[in-house]
Amino acid sequence: MPEIKLVGLFFLTALAEIVGCYLPYLWLREDKSAWLLLPAALSLALFAWLLTLHPTAAGRVYAAYGGVYIFTAILWLWFIDGVRPTFWDLVGSGLALLGMAIIMFAPRDV
Q1: Number of folded domains in the chain?
Q2: Amino acid 40: pLDDT
Q3: What is the 3-state secondary structure (H, E, C) of 7-49?
Q4: Which of 22, 56, 67, 91 has a CA between 20 and 30 Å from the CA of residue 36?
Q5: What span, in angstroms and rounded, lies between the C-alpha atoms of 74 and 51?
C-alpha cells in the first residue's frame, strides 16, 4: 500500500475513534442528548473496521497507529476544542509521527 494512502487510512481511523469517544463525552460531561450515543457507536464500529484494512500485522499497526492518534488528538484539541497546542504538544506529536513512520516504513527482511 503506498505510503500516502496508508497515512491517510491511519488519520481516518484516528478520526473515527476520536469522534466515537468524543460524542459520549459530550453526553456525559456537557449534558448533551443521549442520541449522540448512536453515531458514537457507529463511529467506533467504523474505527474497528478501518483497523482491519491496514496491510501489516496487527501489533505493528496498533503501535504505529498510536503515533497518528496522538497527532490527530492534538489537531482535535486545536480545531475542535479551540485550545492552541503548545510548542511541546507539537514536538511530542511530531515525535509520535516520526515513530509511526519508522515502524511502518523501515526496511524489513520479511
Answers
A1: 1
A2: 98
A3: HHHHHHHHHHHHHHHHHHHHHHHCCCCHHHHHHHHHHHHHHHH
A4: 67
A5: 21
Tell me which residue has cell 509521527.
97
φ, ψ for residue 53 (rounded to 5)?
A: -85, -10
pTM reported for the whole predicted model: 0.86
Residue 71 placed within a domain = yes
Residue 64 in contact with residue 7, Cβ under 8 Å? no
List, for the chain, all residue ranges whose pLDDT scores fall below the cut of 50.
none
Range of the domain at 7: 3-105
The string of DSSP letters for 47-60 reads HHHHHHTSSS-HHH
Find where cell 483497523 sits.
51
Residue 110 resides in a domain: no
Q: What is the pLDDT of residues 47-63, one digit of tens each?
A: 999 988 987 778 888 88
